[in-house]
Design a protein that fits this description.
mainly alpha
Length: 314
């Protein structure tokens, strides 16, 4: 017990240090996590040399495992966001659910969109659609907001390639295909419970937006197929690799699945599909692929995320 006490104390103080650094001092998460790591190491009784080695190994191993995957996922999400694919996905799902169940449609939209697109940017992207649907259907904006938000957060928290579950899979050396499969399954009841809660909250706090910006009717958007493929193809390839391994598939089919089902390769294929979709919408945007375009902006975001996740691994 005496040996365990410093470790438990270190863990408690490390969490406290993380909260203070991020909430009180407003430090960047990367530096907050570095401070947290050092607090834990010092309190738990690690020597300076083992502490530095553990930090370097933890950060380097985590970045090596998932850095490329995060970069590819971030760029794919940016292309889907800028091309209007996320809006197409929302409209497609709402055609299926109808206006009566528009909130459920938003929750389902969030479920799919937040797999490649970070939930904060996806929420900003889809908020105008939620407002317009609330106005047109007379369903409370409270219901719409909660349904969308929780649909986004469900897969954001459980399904790679979002950084959180991706980092956990990398640190635990878990099979990424199985993490995606079970994460997607667990996200379904979470989304449904959130939807039911949103109906109750919407009745209690009924509100309709008064000012809504309509999307121009002649705005060019990608097709439903081009919108969904960058998400569904990588997921399908990674799951097929997992199924092939579980079924002990051998020979050329197994070799092909092992290559295309590797997370980086699968996401690269999804990124290429998203790039084709973006080019179809903005063929004149020749800067998108260089240092000053959509991809460059996404890579700046990806760099920060990789560092933050790496520090978390440390």
């Amino acid at each position: 017990m005496n040996g365990a006490f410093p470790v438990i104390a270190g863990l408690v103080l490390a969490v406290l240090a993380l909260v203070i650094c991020t909430v009180k001092l407003k430090l960047h998460p990367f530096f907050a996590l570095i401070a947290t790591s050092f607090v834990f190491a010092i309190v738990s009784g690690m020597g300076m040399e083992p502490m530095l080695k553990a930090f370097a190994d933890g950060m380097g191993g985590t970045v090596a495992d998932i850095g490329l995957v995060i970069a590819l996922g971030t760029v794919t999400g940016a292309l889907l966001e800028k091309s209007g694919a996320a809006e197409t996905m929302a409209k497609t799902i709402l055609k299926i659910t109808g206006k009566k169940h528009a909130a459920l449609g938003l929750a389902i939209t969030g479920y799919f969109v937040s797999i490649p697109v970070f939930c904060d940017s996806a929420f900003v992207l889809l908020s105008p659609i939620a407002k317009r649907l609330s106005r047109d259907t007379k369903i409370s904006m409270t219901t719409m907001a909660i349904s969308l938000c929780m649909g986004l957060h469900a897969t954001h928290m459980f399904v790679p390639p979002t950084p959180g579950p991706l980092a956990v899979a990398g640190i635990l050396s878990a099979d990424l295909g199985q993490v995606i499969l079970f994460g997607a399954l667990v996200s379904i009841p979470v989304t449904l419970v959130a939807y039911l809660a949103s109906l109750y909250a919407g009745k209690k706090y009924y509100y309709l937006p008064t000012s809504v910006e309509d999307t121009p009717e002649n705005q060019n958007l990608p097709s439903a197929m081009m919108s969904f493929l960058p998400i569904l193809v990588p997921i399908a390839l990674m799951l097929l690799k997992t199924v092939g391994s579980m079924c002990k598939l051998t020979g050329t089919p197994a070799l092909i699945l092992n290559i295309v089902g590797t997370p980086a390769v699968a996401l690269l294929i999804g990124l290429l599909i998203a790039a084709v979709g973006y080019h179809n919408i903005f063929p004149e945007d020749t800067k998108a692929w260089g240092f000053d375009g959509v991809i460059a902006d996404a890579m700046k975001t990806a760099g920060q995320i990789v560092l933050i996740v790496g520090a978390g691994g440390a």
